[in-house]
Amino acid sequence: MSGISVGEALNWASVQLERGSDSAMLDAEVMLQHVLSVSRTYLFTWPDKDLSAEHWQAYMAMVNERAKGHPVAHIIGEREFWSLSLLVNNTTLIPRPDTEMLVETALNLKVPDNCRALDLGTGTGAIALALASERPSWQVTAVDKVDDAVALAKMNRDKLALSQVEVLQSDWFSAVEGRQFELVVSNPPYIDERDEHLSQGDVRFEPLSALTAADEGFADLFHIATQARAYLIAGGYLLMEHGYQQAQVLREKLTELGYQDVATVRDFGSNDRCTLG
Ligand code: GLN
């Protein structure tokens, strides 16, 4: 035994983390849950429970990593997205809650039961796997240009036993040449390369290739929108996440390219977050 209780460990950690993180207590809890393999409720039900020496050592090491700035998701190696627990590492973007709005929007579209859906730049596989978990009859294809991301998305697919999801290495549409889809979704890189928030917080530990795009962040959004037309059936949908200030320009671009019923959806923080056409 370590002589340190659950409550004491959490208080110690939140003090260590207060300076570097605006979610110190939450970070402390998530990491302790992970070390002890317990639910959040457990931490509050058993605050006086002693940690074993091994658990306390492991926990201190994690808190020190977090204090150095590393994202909690990288430290514990997983992240919740939708109702799924996904493996994550530093080769892809860490799935964000904002992106759940894209999933929700996609699930509300009028598409056939055997919908063919394509997720471009899938990273961990988050969007594709969330869609497949909700719509077992869909044929979901997830692609990424980065080999490590393809490997990670496959690991997540296998862990979640969503074997109907096909994961391919592909530079945007290159591996699905000639195929047709009812739905194309993407959370591509869309941050302006000069954006100053890239030097702050968790994003410093994520690959720039998953975050930034040329032309004030529009390069990949525009590329996908232009190419997607050849891969969508008539009446199919394109749905992309973007920055909250990019909505209007993107709507104009989609309209110019011939997309119809172009509309933007807001996220839970009331920011324009994804655009549909
Ligand atoms: N929304 C993310 C951020 O601001 C970026 C996601 C992306 O580039 N696709 O950190």
Radius of gyration: 20 Å
Terminal Cα span: 59 Å
Mean pLDDT: 96
Bound compounds, please?
glutamine
Q: What would you call the shape?
A: elongated
User: What can be said about the biggest beta sheet?
Assistant: 7 strands, mixed
Class from helix and strand fractions: alpha/beta
CATH superfamily of the largest domain, called what?
Answer: Vaccinia Virus protein VP39
Q: How much of the polypeptide forms β-strand, as a percent range?
A: 15-25%
Put the structure in a nutshell:
The chain has 277 residues and is an alpha/beta fold. It has ten helices and eleven strands.
Short descriptors:
DNA_methylase_N6_adenine_CS, 277 residues, 10 helices, 2 domains, alpha/beta, Rossmann fold, two-stranded antiparallel ribbon, Release factor glutamine methyltransferase, 11 strands, transferase, EC 2.1.1.297, binds glutamine, RF_methyltr_PrmC
Structural features, described:
It catalyses: L-glutaminyl-[peptide chain release factor] + S-adenosyl-L-methionine = N(5)-methyl-L-glutaminyl-[peptide chain release factor] + S-adenosyl-L-homocysteine + H(+). Pfam families: MTS (PF05175), PrmC_N (PF17827). S-adenosyl-L-methionine binds at residues 121-125, 144, 172, 187. Its EC number is 2.1.1.297. Methylates the class 1 translation termination release factors RF1/PrfA and RF2/PrfB on the glutamine residue of the universally conserved GGQ motif. With 277 residues, the protein is of the alpha/beta class. The protein has two domains: 6-69, Helicase, Ruva Protein, domain 3 (Orthogonal Bundle); 91-276, 3-Layer(aba) Sandwich (Rossmann fold). 36% of the residues lie in helices and 19% in strands. The strands form three sheets. A seven-stranded mixed sheet has the order 5-4-3-6-9-11-10, sandwiched between helices. Strands 1-2 form a two-stranded antiparallel sheet. Helix 8 links the parallel strand 4 and strand 5. Helix 2 (24-36) runs antiparallel to helix 4 (53-67). The relative contact order is 0.11. The model has no long low-confidence stretch (mean pLDDT 96). The structure holds glutamine. The site of glutamine has 10 residues, from loops.
